[in-house]
Every structure is written in C-alpha cells, then in structure tokens.
Amino acid sequence: MTDQSLMSDAALEAACDAALRDEAAAITAFAAAETREIATAARQIAASPAPLIVAGIGKSGHIAGKIASTFRSIGKSAIFLHAAEASHGDLGLVAPDSVVLILSNSGETTELSDLIHYCRTHANPIIALTATKDSTLARAADLTIAYGQVTEVCPNGLAPTTSTTLQLAIGDALAVGVTHLLGTAADDFRRYHPGGKLGTALLKVRDLMHTGAALPFVAPDAAMSETVAVMAEKALGVALVWDGGDVTGIITDGDMRRHAKRLWEARAGDIATPDPVWITADARASEALALMTRTGKGITSCLVREPGGAFAGFLHIHDCLRAGVVA
User: Fold this and answer.
1) Of the residues 80, 176, 188, 309, which has the maximum number of CB atoms within 10 A of its CB?
2) What is the pLDDT of residues 229-246, one digit of tens each?
3) Class of 205-322 per CATH?
4) Over the chain, what is the mean pLDDT?
5) Which class for 251: exposed (0-12), middle (13-18), buried (19 or more C-beta within 10 A)?
6) Around Cβ 147, how many Cβ atoms within 10 Å?
7) Contact present, 67 and 101 (Cβ < 8 Å)
8) CATH of region 9-184
9) pLDDT tens column, 289-321
C-alpha cells in the first residue's frame, strides 16, 4: 500500500469528481443502449402473484437486498435470498410461482449453482442481472439484463463500484416499471411507509381530524354559558355552531375576547365567526398546516369537508404538529 497522505486537496477532489462522472457515464451509456429486457422483466415480475426472489452474494448481495426492499415499498412482495444460504435451507423461500432475479457481475459465482439448479428443476423463471450474456448465469436464465463489461472506478479497477452502481440503477428502473404496471399510488406507498418523515409527509387530513362525539357542537341559539361548558368538555379550544345541517360558524377564545362586554348576554350564533377556513378531508395534512400558518390570519384550526361538500370534521394545528407534519 503506497502512502497517499501527500495528495493535494485539488487532486483528491478531482479523483472523487471523476469517479462520480465515470459512474454517471456508465449509466447513461447503458440507458442509451437496448433496454427492452428491463421492460420485459418488469412485466414478468408484475404478472407473478408470488413474492419476487432477489438473490446475490457479496457486493451484489447487498444490492440485491436493497432492490428487494424497494419492491416491497411499491407493494410488490419481494424477498432477499443470500445465495450461500440458499443451499442450506433457504431455497424454501422460493414459492412455486416466484420469479427469481439473480445478481452477479461475473455470472460465474459458484454459490449460485444450487439456486440455478433448483429454479430449473421447479420451473421458476430466472432473470439474470449480470455483465455479459455469455456467462453461466446468463445461459441458464430465461431473460438476461446485461450491462456490459465496465471499468470499476476503484483506482485499482478491482472493488465493485461501477458495476454495483449499474445493478442498483437497473433495479430501480425495474421497480419504476413495476410501479407503473401495478398502478401503485401515493396512498398505497403511505400504507407501506406509515412511520418516519415519509409517512407523515403522506398523511391526509382525514387521518388526523376529529369527528363525531369528539366535536364541540352547539346550536346557534345556545347561551354562551352552555357554549363555554361544551368547549371545556371537548377540550379543542373551539365551539362549532351547528344548525342541524352544517357548521355555520366557529367560536374561538379570540372571538370571546372580542365580545367580552356582551359575552354572557349573547348567543353562540352572535359570537361565531361566520366564515371559517375549510379544507377537504383528502388533502395532505401538510397542506392543512400550510393553510393555517400561511393565511395571514394566524388561525390554529380549520373545518373539514368531504370532497362532495358534506361536513367531515375538525382539524387543529396541534394535531398536525403532534404527528410530525411539516408544511
């Protein structure tokens, strides 16, 4: 190992930049070539009712694990199968109708032999993701996606770098194709990602709004003493004036302060703000938060309607903040 500690910052930056450019060029070159096999593979994967099996070993195995995870994100069942473990009982993961996607840059990895034999014996279609079409894996496969012999950007040309980047990009392209074929929508995606920032970014207003008995309804002619009691009981900081068919106004503590001098002589309908802010139940919670914080009115809540116009519920800004929603 040579001492590179004296390498200048400029030279190091140039080397890193070249690595990125060379890997990007490899992807661009492959995308410009014949990629019909990717579309064919995507259709085969989407049509199979069984979990997709994504297999590999070594660095290709790490990429295979990520590809399997991506497919699960879009709603296509997928399992990562470590090629070496396949020979020690994990072949049981391969369902009768499973398509098997096998990754190997050389296509000559000996640990793949038992898996290939099993697939051939049980008629499981093999999709090979490898460098060339003349390898053992490619010849055994029903369909081969070959990205060609590439130069690894590793200075010694040895560590899997460019080849694994291509595998990862092709795996993403397969997942995108299957997403289109399955018709996976944002709501489906949220179902598989209920936690974390991604989950909160996809929350809808209806997921957070208050409904039914939790709502502080009062009649337009309700005395303010009754109204205050309802507000205290429901603990949402507001009262909703309900005329029997719809909410006609909202009462906040600000409304009560503005009418303090006549508060106890007034009725709920006299105090209520008649034009509350509304949002639809199917809107993103982030949209509701933006509506409340960017209207210039300094509001902390909004009323919710169904897409058809019917009253649906009530949303407070604290509901959004507690869920981790950001505008």
Assistant:
1) 80
2) 999 999 998 999 999 889
3) alpha beta
4) 90
5) buried
6) 23
7) yes
8) 3.40.50.10490
9) 888 887 556 688 999 999 999 999 999 988 888
Nearest to 287 by CA among 276, 297, 274, 302: 302
CATH 3.10.580.10 domain span(s) along the chain: 205-322
Cβ neighbours around 312 below 10 Å, total: 21
Ordered DSSP codes for 301-321: EEEEE-TTS-EEEEEEHHHHH
- CA atoms of 226 and 249, how far apart (whole Å): 16
Please state, for a pLDDT cut of 90, what percent of the chain lies above it. Answer: 69
Read off the pLDDT of residues 19-34 as tens digits, 9 standing for 90 and up: 999 999 999 999 998 7
Average pLDDT of span 245-272: 91
The CATH 3.40.50.10490 domain(s) of the chain lie at: 9-184
Provide the pairing of β-strand 143-146 with 126-130: parallel
Strands (E), 83-233: 100-103, 126-130, 143-146, 217-218
| Predicted local distance difference test score (pLDDT) of residue 194 | 58
What are the beta bridge partners of residue 204? 284
Look up residue 89 and give its DSSP letter: T
What pLDDT, on a 0 to 100 scale, did the predictor assign at position 23? 96
State which amino acid sits at residue 121.
T
